Amino acid sequence: MRPQITARRVLNALLSRVKGFSISISPTTKQPGKSNIVSSYIPSAHPTREDPEPLVRHAHINILPYELLTQVFLLALPEDDITVIRPFTRYPQLTLSHVCSRWRHLIFSMESLWKQFTMKDEEGSKVLGKRMLDRVMGRSRARAASLSGLTQFWFDRASSSAPTIILLGSASLPAMPVVMKNLGRCDSLALALALGEGSTKDLLSLFSGDTSSLIFLSVTTRGHSRTIYKDIMDTPAFFSSPHWQNLRVLKWLCESLPFPLLDIPMPQLGVLQVSSTITLNKDLKLFLSRSPNLTRITFEDLQLSATTNSSVTPFVIPNLHTFHIHCMTGNDPLDALASFTLPSLTCLALSSEATSLSRNYEALEAMVTRSSCHLEIFTACDSSFPPTDFAGYLTLPCMKPVRKLHLTAPCIQDRTIELLRPIPSTIKGRILLPNLKVLDLGKCSTTDGLLADVVASRRVLDAHAEVLYGGCDPPARLEELHVAFKLQDIRQSMHMPHVAVERLSHIRDIMGFNSLFEGGLAISFSFRL
């Protein structure tokens, strides 16, 4: 710990010496034959007050012990995982490389610093009206040169042993030729594309290069969806097969665009996330069946076709362990389960907007029985949930293995919480969720003190279990609790402080939580409108 403390003091001393000035770091001596890119963008020092203090000669940082220099270097590094390349601005890694020769050696020997980067336009996409047009036009060529030079510099030092992660948007267009030229040197390529009006075709032209090593693709959109979607469909290179053969992760985060890739086989795909509306029909089932290695699927707007509930043979996704289904108004995510057999499923999340009061809970039990799977993590989130409907989930026999439960609704009331009390007589002598260890509740509007009492009943020591549970096997001890209480309307109590109203609404619960926390239970709670 002593070197770290000393390093922090040294760093604070360095920063205090430049207080009132912009930081200026002298470049190291250029070596013959080396690129001039790095030394081309060095900020100059200038005083920020009229009477600057006299300069004091300090010892060079190179005389510090190497171990201490390393500690100072690590403290000075930015915490961001992604290197942001902006025109006319050298990013922190290059700035630090100019301090001393030892730091320069560290910069280029740490492969973790060269794993990913993104390019952003320093002035943004909108130009202020006060700026002269000729000034903007005059800087465009220099901006492009800056981005291209820094991008090539990054590629020259990127590690071939780790995936090359690149985030591209409209500000990246000047550097696209450099990116295209270097794609072939990437053993594993991860792309995140932010498509916008006027830039979609240029960004997707990347797929006309060597993208056979593509293993990760994330697509988001900004701007008019129809124009962007037309540009996507008018780019044949995007749909060619080579770069889909090794893809492992696909995230289509475009809420307003249809998912256009159902006809493309992706045999290595392991993770699929689709934010746009997608229909559970034969085309989607065929697409999923072509990806036998799928382990995680998220559908954020799944629609059910007219034939979803008909007597069709469920198809198997053998390795899927995590399945998130969200349905908009009028669709019940439980109905979608009739189409699947999931023998490896351990984590299931079901959420919906407004659905009918009649829910198909039997579909969940039937799917688990048919698949012979064991649910360990279960999430139910419904924005218009009647408070009694959670009983339909919690009383199912398939919920017995669940060790982590997350329930969210506009108003979770006493009936749901009472079901969690481990009393054998609750449901035909059966303790519900006997393996529950983590409980996460959103928008609780329960009687003050009830939740703390129920949680305490799941923290009983083994010595008292036989008496309390009438000879039945005691439930697992709850280890974590996360709860958001529904904040009561404070307009009727405007004379009281806001925080006081929050605490008065569940003061008994909070007092009980303090005791449970001292007993070793991990607890977090909050209040929400």
TrEMBL record:
Region described as Disordered: 27-51
Biased composition (Polar residues): 27-42
A Pfam family: F-box-like
Ranges of residues in domain F-box: 61-118
Protein name per UniProt: F-box domain-containing protein
